[in-house]
Structure formats: C-alpha cells, structure tokens
Amino acid sequence: MFLPHGYDGQGPEHSSARLERYLRLCAEDNIQVCVPSTPAQFFHLLRRQMLRAYRKPLIVMTPKSLLRHKLCVSHFEDFTERGFQTVIDETGEIDPEKVERLLFCTGKVYFDLIEARIEHGIDNIAIIRIEQLSPYPKVAVAEVLGRYPHVKQPVWVQEEPQNQGGWWYMRDSMEFKLEYVGRPPSASPAAGYFEIHRQQRQTLIAEALQINQ
C-alpha cells in the first residue's frame, strides 16, 4: 500500500499518512513499514516483495516532493549491483573518526538535513537513513553505530510532531538512549500556514545540526 507522506507546507490534509498508526500495529514482524528515499531503493523494495517466498503486508510512505528533488537520484549501478538496504549509512565524505553527533532519520527530512549540512560546511555530523522501520533492522543499526566510535549523542530527527511519526516506535526499538529533534507535540498533523511550517522546518534543522540561528 502506497501512502503520500511528507511535510511540504500544504497543511494538515496533505502532509501526514499517519505513520504512527501503522507502527502501533507492528509486532512480531507482522507487517513491513518502509520509507524508501531513492528511486533504486523503491525499485529494490518492490522487487524484494515479489521475489520473496512468502507474502507479508507492505506499507510504503512516499513523499511527493521527492519525485522532483534534485538530490533524490540513483546511479545505474544502484539498480544492478545492490538490493534493498534497510539502513543507509552516511554517503558523504565524512570521516567517521571525527563524527560526534549521529542523526537517524527517515523520509524527506534527510534531504533537508543534507542541504543544510553542505551549506554550513559541517563535517562532524553523520546522517543515517532508516529505510525500513518495521521489522526494526537491529543488526544493521548496530553495524552503523560501530563505525562511529566517538559519537556523544545519537539523535532521532523527524518532520512530524513529537506525538506522531516514528519517534515513539524508534525510541522503544533502539537499544540506546536517543535524543529527539522535531516539531513539538500537536493535535494537528501539520501547521495550516506555510510561514509557520517554514519556521518550524528551520528550527528543527538548526537544532539537529546545531546551527546558531
């Protein structure tokens, strides 16, 4: 099942597919909840679903703005030489020995963080994409953590309000203390005014990357 999900400033009715509700249903590896961030990941996710010897419900969150995002691209080799990655480690030229802050995220917010990190020349923060939230990729996350020996604080970054999105699920799944960065709790899925959306977006990016505004 494909569901549009991503915060683009279009208001409460066009931002959230209620990711948190599907994650609440996840237990004992009963369903898959994925948020592919590249064309190749999307391809391999569907291919994996068809080639497996068993059938398990697949929920896919698909940010609409990534259809035209300049950074959301895949090389030919990504389609032919790889499979679906439940976790995507840092892909930039970041020295793991220098990383002090590790950001875990999923979906469109990854590209917002990457653009801001490049703009401010930050080289001590790594950004990790969780492409499959359920079943939780425990081994893959542990392998990523092992590459960064000097991390002081792992952080979960999300676009959604704190009482929504993947925060509660990831906090309970990850076997280490996790800091939260995102919008504050809200009764509404998203702000109704674009200016408020823009301010919230700038605030969470600045907090995640520790940028002085």
How would you describe what is shown here?
The protein is of the alpha/beta class and 213 residues long. It has a single domain (2-209), classed as Rossmann fold. 32% of the residues lie in helices and 19% in strands. The protein has 7 helices and 9 strands, in the order E-H-E-H-E-H-E-E-H-E-E-H-E-H-E-H. It has helices at residues 19-24, 39-51, 76-80, 109-120, 138-146, 167-173, 194-209; strands at 2-4, 32-34, 58-62, 87-88, 101-105, 125-130, 132-134, 153-161, 179-183. The strands form 2 sheets. A 5-stranded mixed β-sheet has the order 4-6-5-8-9, sandwiched between helices. Helix 4 links the parallel strand 5 (101-105) and strand 6. Helix 4 (109-120) packs across helix 7 (194-209).
CATH topology: Rossmann fold
The CATH superfamily label reads: Multifunctional 2-oxoglutarate metabolism enzyme, C-terminal domain
* Separation of the first and last Cα atoms: 40 Å
Element-level helix/strand string:
EHEHEHEEHEEHEHEH
